[in-house]
Amino acid sequence: MSRILPVAVLLLTVSNPASSLELSDYRIVDLTHPYNAETIYWPTSPSKFELTELAYGETPGGWFYSSYSLCTPEHGGTHFDAPIHFSASGAPVHDVPLQDVIAPAVTIDVSAQAAVDPDYLLSLEDVLGFEARHGEIEDGTIVLLRTGWSGRWPDTAAYMGDDTPGDASGLSFPGYGVAAARLLVEQRGVAVLGIDTASIDHGPSKDFAVHVLAAESNVGALENLAGLDQLPPTGFTVFALPIKIEGGSGAPMRAVALVPRESR
User: Fold this and answer.
1) pLDDT value at position 262?
2) Is the per-residue pLDDT at 131 higher than 60?
3) Distances in Å between the alpha carbon of 206 and those of 91, 116, 172?
């Protein structure tokens, strides 16, 4: 499947209403945790999500009006890591091509392995086994790694493996192994690596080798995803749109998947 297909479909919809995308043919799967007081951030984050009420209620003019200000670090909740997060030459959020975050996707399920080993690393053999069953992962694909960890949200201790404020030394959760990531990034040419944990590197990582490897190839990451259990292995499209923060190293995002109704 061409990586430009989703964008091409949207353009066709605008230019030719008779050929519009029929959304009733798809399940729309929300892959995003809501932002609120329980949103999980990296333990060393200096702040968390804040929503401050500016106005709420009837106005002197007789209509209802509500307004808020919000504050959040880039990296927390369901968010996008831009390549510049781990590479000085990597693209910031506002320069990430749309075809990287609106693209065909696959789901690799290692939830059974992670249930036995909470620090499980996606292996090269896992990826090759997936390809033996479903075909080689194509250039420009968004790869989603399902570990089952989203079911632990928003329990920080269960999700992160430790909830000590300011201390990231005791974290425990699954992630991508370096060999698997190298195959996906350098040989398959994937657009983005995604996962339903707090990091594409597993919890015990001290060098963030997968982040570095991906960023050096200008590949971003989707972290703290939800709903991956509702996705098939192949045949669907992900829309993962981060807030367009100029110069940002990451951003909160709303991620959804369009899944053909016959797929499950």
Assistant:
1) 81
2) yes
3) 23, 22, 12
Look at residue 4 and tell me whether its pLDDT is greater than 50. no
CA dihedral 119, 161, 42, 230 (to 10 degrees): 70
Judge whether 92 and 248 are in contact, CB under 8 Å: yes
Distance CA 258, CA 8 (A): 15
| Active-site option among 75, 79, 85, 211 | 85
Whether this prediction's pTM lies above 0.85 is answered by yes
Which residues lie across from 108 on neighbouring strands? 145
The Cα 200–Cα 137 span in angstroms is: 18
Question: Is 202 a known active-site residue?
Answer: no
Q: How far apart are CA 221 and CA 145, in angstroms?
A: 11
Lowest-pLDDT choice from 135-144, 244-253, 254-263: 254-263
Find the length of the chain. Answer: 264
